[in-house]
Amino acid sequence: MNSDFFIQALGRFLEHKLAWSLALVVVVLLIRYALVYLFRRSSWARQDIRRRVHMVHNFTNLIIVIGLFAIWVSELRDFALSIAAFSVAIVIALRDVVACLVGGLYQASMRSFTIGDWVRIGDQFGEVIDNNWLSTTLLEIDPHGLGNGYTGTTLYVPNNVFFTQPVKNLNFMRRYIEHSFSIVRENKGENPFAIKPYITERVLEHCESFKDVAERYCKLIESRMGVDLAGTEPKIKFSTSELGHNVLTITLFCPREDATDIEQKVTEDFYRYWYGDGDKRAQEQSSTH
């Protein structure tokens, strides 16, 4: 009975991997201790003893590592699979955060904008008031509005959009813009080009106060960006609409805050010419003929 109990206990011990690991370490360490003891008791030179002891330490350490790996290989395989599955789950769960971090690094390396710049990111347009590794904060600006154009809305744009959306830096257009507007008038059989000299003169008068500054700013933009702009001279174009109405399109390079005011003044001049000062218009038309 005692022998059966001993055999069963030994069998359970041999099946226990922790016991095998302990036995392996103990046996290898005993062998190393015995070999080191024999080497140090030998008559070899001190340098040779040191070299052999070092080789014994390295060799026994290698045996311990290989033995433990062989004993625990199945558990290590399962653990590695668990780690891999956990890593994949973490990556899937945090893929947007990782994309934002990479997008922040991408933007920082490109230096496409800085705090205070006016930018357009995809369809979002605003002034950059904060930029971190995860998001960019914009104070929204109405892309069709003039003056300050702030809407009062704060936009939080995740940095991963830098990989999918174009980024336009509009900082040079913050002070001066190329403002274009159209005035439509029903075609009444009159020559629409009769107003061109008058409206050109009025537009130049409205732009006279900032003409020199606009020219210098235009040259500054050209030198900084390395492009040739269309210039600061107002451009007047006549066309017709789908309904056959006369369309007068005027393009100005003017201060952003003055764009709306100038547009209203030119519109007022336009309608005053056609409807307000009939006698003056008739005289100008007769003089042109």
> Mean pLDDT across all residues, rounded?
79
Low-confidence stretches: none
CATH fold type of the largest domain: Alpha-Beta Plaits
Provide the succession of SSEs: HHHHHEEEEEEHHEEHH
Radius of gyration: 42 Å
Question: What is the CATH architecture descriptor of the largest domain?
Answer: 2-Layer Sandwich
Question: Which percent bin holds the helix content?
Answer: 40-55%
What would the principal axes of the Cα set say about the shape? rod-shaped
Number of discrete domains: 3
CATH classification class of the largest domain: Alpha Beta
Distance between the termini: 136 Å
The strand order across the widest sheet is: 4-3-2-1-5
- Strand content bin: 15-25%
**Tally of helical runs:** 9
Short description:
The protein has helices spanning 2-15, 17-41, 46-71, 73-93, 95-110, 196-207, 211-225, 259-276, 278-288, and strands spanning 118-121, 124-131, 135-141, 150-158, 167-169, 176-185, 235-240, 246-255. The protein is an alpha+beta fold. It folds into three domains: 2-87; 111-172, SH3 type barrels; 176-288, Alpha-Beta Plaits (2-Layer Sandwich).
Descriptive keywords:
289 residues, alpha+beta, 3 domains, 5-stranded antiparallel β-sheet, 3-stranded antiparallel β-sheet, 55% helix, rod-shaped
